[in-house]
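Researcher: Let's try something more involved. This one mixes different molecule types, so please make sure each is placed in the same coordinate frame as the others.
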Amino acid sequence: MGEPAASSSEVAPKHGVIACASYANGRRVSDIPLVDCSEKLAETSDFIWIGLYEPPEDILRLIQKEFNLHDLAVEDALSAHQRPKLEQYEGSLFVVLRTAHVEADGHLEFGETHVFVGDRFVVSVRHGSIKSHSPLRAKCEAQPEQLKKGPGFVLYALMDFIVDQYMPIVDELEERLEKLEEEVFGDERSKMTTSRIYSLKRDLVGLKRAVSPVADICNRLMRFDSGIVHEDTRPYFRDVYDHALRVNEHIDTLRELLGAALEANLSLISVSQNDDTKRLAAWAAIVAVPTLIAGVYGMNFEAMPELHWAYGYYVILVLMFFACGSLFIGFKRSGWL
Amino acid sequence: MGEPAASSSEVAPKHGVIACASYANGRRVSDIPLVDCSEKLAETSDFIWIGLYEPPEDILRLIQKEFNLHDLAVEDALSAHQRPKLEQYEGSLFVVLRTAHVEADGHLEFGETHVFVGDRFVVSVRHGSIKSHSPLRAKCEAQPEQLKKGPGFVLYALMDFIVDQYMPIVDELEERLEKLEEEVFGDERSKMTTSRIYSLKRDLVGLKRAVSPVADICNRLMRFDSGIVHEDTRPYFRDVYDHALRVNEHIDTLRELLGAALEANLSLISVSQNDDTKRLAAWAAIVAVPTLIAGVYGMNFEAMPELHWAYGYYVILVLMFFACGSLFIGFKRSGWL
Amino acid sequence: MGEPAASSSEVAPKHGVIACASYANGRRVSDIPLVDCSEKLAETSDFIWIGLYEPPEDILRLIQKEFNLHDLAVEDALSAHQRPKLEQYEGSLFVVLRTAHVEADGHLEFGETHVFVGDRFVVSVRHGSIKSHSPLRAKCEAQPEQLKKGPGFVLYALMDFIVDQYMPIVDELEERLEKLEEEVFGDERSKMTTSRIYSLKRDLVGLKRAVSPVADICNRLMRFDSGIVHEDTRPYFRDVYDHALRVNEHIDTLRELLGAALEANLSLISVSQNDDTKRLAAWAAIVAVPTLIAGVYGMNFEAMPELHWAYGYYVILVLMFFACGSLFIGFKRSGWL
Amino acid sequence: MGEPAASSSEVAPKHGVIACASYANGRRVSDIPLVDCSEKLAETSDFIWIGLYEPPEDILRLIQKEFNLHDLAVEDALSAHQRPKLEQYEGSLFVVLRTAHVEADGHLEFGETHVFVGDRFVVSVRHGSIKSHSPLRAKCEAQPEQLKKGPGFVLYALMDFIVDQYMPIVDELEERLEKLEEEVFGDERSKMTTSRIYSLKRDLVGLKRAVSPVADICNRLMRFDSGIVHEDTRPYFRDVYDHALRVNEHIDTLRELLGAALEANLSLISVSQNDDTKRLAAWAAIVAVPTLIAGVYGMNFEAMPELHWAYGYYVILVLMFFACGSLFIGFKRSGWL
Amino acid sequence: MGEPAASSSEVAPKHGVIACASYANGRRVSDIPLVDCSEKLAETSDFIWIGLYEPPEDILRLIQKEFNLHDLAVEDALSAHQRPKLEQYEGSLFVVLRTAHVEADGHLEFGETHVFVGDRFVVSVRHGSIKSHSPLRAKCEAQPEQLKKGPGFVLYALMDFIVDQYMPIVDELEERLEKLEEEVFGDERSKMTTSRIYSLKRDLVGLKRAVSPVADICNRLMRFDSGIVHEDTRPYFRDVYDHALRVNEHIDTLRELLGAALEANLSLISVSQNDDTKRLAAWAAIVAVPTLIAGVYGMNFEAMPELHWAYGYYVILVLMFFACGSLFIGFKRSGWL
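Model: All components are placed in one shared frame. Result:
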């Protein structure tokens, strides 16, 4: 996680700064220390791209000064736990996105990526979002034609990068749903099934909350008339918009099916309860009948001819056996056993 | 599936190209190789209609070059798994539709048809959508008056073709619902009923997802001011719009009824559980009473006059029989048996 | 059903044409054969009102030619199974409405009425909608002042006629709901109750589907700027709009109450199941206790003084009786029996 | 109910006319007979306020003529059973409101108040709405400054009067919900609980239907540009709007809580069913064990030493007692009893 | 609760007035008596900030006179029980917010804060909202740069203060949900669980009702063109808006999860009922089998060889024991016990 310090040798190796470089004409010019940013912007026409990971407050304050960011945006970036949103300040945009990853135990964890975008700078701040942006930076640098379009393109690349991470997660959730379907409709239904349904629901609700504002953010970026987002870049945001919608729809489908699975689960619990009641009744009957017969021949009447038959006992035993046997067969046939 | 190669003899029989022909004045002029398309467009005023089936990337890239398509649209056409949508690029439209067909085991499978429409070309790309477009092409060619209206009319014909395929599918789903109703309200309710309800739900959700965006796509096509869709063609898109709405509404009705059927199923499971409990109780009572009587006469008191009666045993047997009989009749009357 | 052929003696008694007359200044001028319609329109300033009942295709095609109707509208009128809608074509409106009637077995059946309205003609086509329009025609002819307003007024009269038919149907559905409430909350709850709830739900969903688009159709007619609907007629469409809304709201209320009734039904099934379980338990106890006592005195110990008492048997019988009796009273008091 | 006839001595004491008076400068000038209204309006600049209670058709027709009301509005006023609405006719508004009151048996009954408002007249028509408007008239007459604003202010006063009646009703419904909560969560849950939940639901649905259109009506009155509603009066309609919203929200909250209470009820029924099953099982075990022991010592083996012990019988009785006792204590501890 | 009287020594210590001070250039100038407010406004360009706590009517009426407030707003402020809203009167805004706090027993209680904001005055009125505003006033006074922006900034500070109080409450509700999840999915499920779910639901509905209008209020304040809210202050309202949305979303998530938890609870109750039924059946079988065996050897047949075996009794006892033991093991294995 994080670019090797070597590649940003000029930057003071302060905690939290992963990379800070200036770009001209779509190519990386040089890595620069944070404190030189405003100077660089004034002297050249380069744009600057900074990557931070859970930075301490002083670094963010320094960046605020260098790029003249709005106080409220910086405070949001400090506190994390924001909802995905796009806010327009004079001269800059502030975008908050939520990232998601699957923990070892199969549950979802969420992180956040905040992005400040100006005419000539991009600052990304990751909070608890474990996937490094360095492959993304490498990929962008490999497309100088595109990178030339400036910070707007970097914003697109970042959003695309994050939205693309949702896809495999949704696929994983779909697999969990399919396993649950097997449990519910197979014979493996247990107490844990309900608990697993609930935990899938929880993850879907969380993911939905992360994804659903993204389409709206893209939509607004597509229509922006500010100079920050280059006109050529807009169809790209439509592409991200489209992906976000797709993920969103997929989540909605899963939620709806999960709801149906929960209901099916409840019905099938009732059905199996019913089956158990029937089985209980059948066995009760099978035991009760010979008990009754035994009771009859346990009566103390003086005049009970069967008692005096030589084979009375065996006849009765056979009778009991037949009674039980025919009950058993009858219940089997009617599906009670 | 697919037009016979004979009818496209001039086209190199590359994998994936089903047909590629130019049309003038509503009539097919000639089949042409893919590589000559741009030339053809430049030299004549014909329009070109290409049909592809799961084409390899190089063919799509060739077409992209010939017709100057946007990168993002071509990437979508390559990857499939798109949601139904309409995207407007400079000089062309990109339409994604989802097709559906019923598998042998009664479940729905979905495919996709992507369409690039320009001023003077239409390219359709099928992915997993099993129904060939050749009858459609034949039908269009039989209406030169209409085909004269250009690519917009072909787009209409394609959309109409796909939306018309939904109708019999919805009818089939309705039949499945009716069978389920019989199961639920008849006496055939079983564990499988719940599972069948769930699987119908799954198919309805999938179909809904395929159909519901179509109305919106048509709506936007009806209002388009671009030259691609001829003004005369717009009422036709309203017709498709109307069909899509009808299918949509039908699906909604089925979903609502299915939901009600699920709830009815749950109630009836409870009712039948109740009935089983009552039956169990009734039989328990019928066996318990003679058992009690037998127990009484199994007591070892010295002074029990009945024991010494000559016909005591028989009297008691008759008593037992009557007790059971009257209980049986009583339970029958009150509906417990 | 249908006007007597006598009143349309001039019309060739072709299958499907119920009436075809021209009107001037709000009064019926004469009945005319279908083929003379276009001529009539050209020569006079009368307007023509035609009533059809499930006409064969050739008649509709003739009418299409006479009035220059759009192909798509005529195809809709041929196929039936349309959703209620209003479509505007150049020079004419096409309105589809759904009619409803209660079958002998209490279920709803739906029909359709299609109306073509032009500047100077109205053509109504009934499909499976059993109520004849002749009383409506008579009523309109009795109000020449209104009929003078032309086809727009006839359209209003037709819509009013159809919407007014919904009211008694909704009332009937409300009665069915009330009977269901009695069943559910009275002691008549049975397996059939659930099935009746479902069938009422089905009818409500169908009726809703028929009624809900009507308000929107009226709304659009109220705002129309075409010459077809006279400005004076617009408040009348607001009246139909209002009635449609009222029916709609009534249906929504019934649906909501039906949903609550279904839930109440499910709770009460559980409650009564619970009651049955308790009753079963109570009777089991009442029988089990004397059985236990009998078992005790059936033991073969040598030294059991009670067995040798002169009235031991009677004492024990009385004891059993008292045990059962006090259990019975106890259970009665606690509401288990 | 109703003003004493004395106060309207000049009015012919026709059935249905409660009051008919003219007002100038915010003060009551004189009571006038209905037939003189149009004359009065022509001669003076007074405005007229008429109160009717379930008037026969001829009176309404007379008023229609006097004030030149639209036919459709008058027909609505005749038939009652309208939904709350605001309709704008040339020169007058027609407002329908629903009133509610609690019957002796605690259920809600609904009435209607229709209001015709013109530049210089207000006519209110009550149908089944039991609360007289005379205190309202008195209150208005006590505020000549306000009454001076004309019919618009009277309309406000009427609406405020009616909306204020909803508040105590909603409070009563809330109390019923609280009692239901006690029933459900206390130990008083019974068959009646479900039926009471349903009946509260019914009342809430009915009240919602009465209240929810009122906010929209006020909203439209606030924005009206007609001379009927004085500009100074508009904030007053916002006040009514606000009250209507509050009642509306309160109803929604109650509905949501009632839904949750219904679900809680269902769970608790299941829980208590479970408890009863456990109790049944526990008692069955407590009786079954000594029955088994008695059965063992009822066997007729020759060699059963216990049978010959002097105190065998007593030992076994004590054993039985201990078995039962320890089972009882065990079940008590585990919460089954 | 409440500022010490000392700090407002100049104010007559009337009941309900917590503070009344004038501010110039962002700094507190002096505390002034209520009656001097209008004079102060006329003479200086200071703005006045008044804090009231459940004031008696005469104080509010005095303030109304001093600041020329609208009658309807003052009446709302008197009666409390308002819904959160923003109302614009000529020259002033009236804002109602709901506050929330957790009672000792864990339930939510709600209070209200009403704010009158004018060009040069702010009056806040607390009803049952227990948290004093004095730390807020202190904080504002510590930021003279901001306070200079006038009453609009004070309004922001108040709203921020109130919305910030929601956060810990939502966190507490989330904790309650988590405890409930443990109860439901752990083995601690009881009758109280359902009741606790219901009470959490109640609190969530109440809180939602308090919070959800706040976003809309902020949204309108952000777009206001009146002089009351300084243009620089608008991004601050966007910040409050954002917080309100976040709280809102959090509540929605909790509600959805709570709904799922309720359903899971219902399923698990059924599952555990099922388990109890099985256990009951298993024990019934374990007792019934030896009872049957004892019954058989209690029969009085003359010819039953086992009865005469020397160790017959012991053999049978062992047989009984083995039967019970193998049943026990079998049930254990199949999970019934």
